[in-house]
């Protein structure tokens, strides 16, 4: 096993990898999937030989898992008065799951707002064509004589 895992300092290399930005939570992954993967890797780091780093304990495992989440989620966690080393990994995971659902809801609100802005764009006046002629609104009311027809059918009061 040592031969396939980086030699005599495989545990050190794996812990260094777990501290890096390469194992941050991906948007496409669920929190449970991310935490499960992370705990598996920490379990491997406990079994591998280490020269520099001590054997990972529960607090180090919690710190590594906590640090792998997005900055805003970690900030919300600490602002709520919680401390990661006083919580279990399951409690941290549940909190981060709520943060993910909140972030997903915010994303869908942004998407809906973007769609609303896109719909409003179609209601704006047409741009001029090459000859310099400008049109009116896309769905302009034609019941009134100019200059009183500067509105759309849906805004017509007649």
Please give a handful of descriptors for the protein shown.
158 residues, mainly alpha, 51% helix
What does this structure look like?
The protein is mainly α. It has a domain at 1-103. Helix content is 51%, strand content 0%. Helix 1 (10-19) packs antiparallel against helix 2 and helix 4 crosses helix 5 (89-123). It starts with 9 loop residues before the first helix and ends in a 35-residue tail after the last helix. Residues 120-130 have a biased composition (Basic residues). Residues 98-119, 142-158 have a biased composition (Basic and acidic residues). Residues 98-158 are annotated as: Disordered.
Tally the helices: what do you get?
5
Run of helices and strands: HHHHH
Q: Total number of β-strand segments?
A: 0
Q: Any low-confidence stretches, pLDDT <50, length ≥5?
A: none
Largest sheet: none
Cα Rg: 28 Å
Portion in helices: 40-55%
Q: What gap, in angstroms, lies between the N and C termini?
A: 83 Å
Structural class: mainly alpha
Strand content: under 5%
Overall pLDDT level: 78
Tell me, briefly, the overall form.
Answer: elongated
Summarize the structure.
The chain has five helices and no strands. α1 runs antiparallel to α2 and α4 packs across α5.
What is the strand and helix layout of this fold?
Blueprint (H helix, E strand, L loop, with lengths): L9 H10 L11 H17 L10 H10 L3 H9 L9 H35 L35
Helix pairs in contact: 1-2, 4-5
């Amino acid at each position: 096993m040592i031969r396939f895992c980086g030699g005599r300092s495989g545990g050190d290399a794996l812990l260094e990898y777990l501290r890096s930005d390469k194992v941050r939570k991906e948007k496409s992954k669920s929190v449970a999937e991310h935490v499960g993967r992370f705990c598996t890797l920490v379990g491997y780091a406990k079994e591998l030989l280490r020269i520099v780093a001590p054997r990972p304990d529960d607090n180090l495992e919690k710190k590594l898992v906590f640090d792998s989440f997005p900055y805003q989620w970690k900030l919300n966690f600490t602002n709520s008065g919680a401390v990661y080393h006083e919580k279990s990994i399951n409690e941290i995971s549940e909190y981060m799951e709520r943060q993910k659902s909140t972030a997903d809801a915010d994303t869908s609100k942004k998407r809906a707002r973007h769609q609303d802005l896109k719909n409003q764009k179609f209601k704006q006046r047409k741009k001029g064509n090459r000859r310099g002629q400008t049109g009116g609104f896309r769905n302009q009311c034609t019941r009134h004589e100019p200059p009183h027809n500067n509105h759309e059918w849906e805004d017509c009061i007649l």
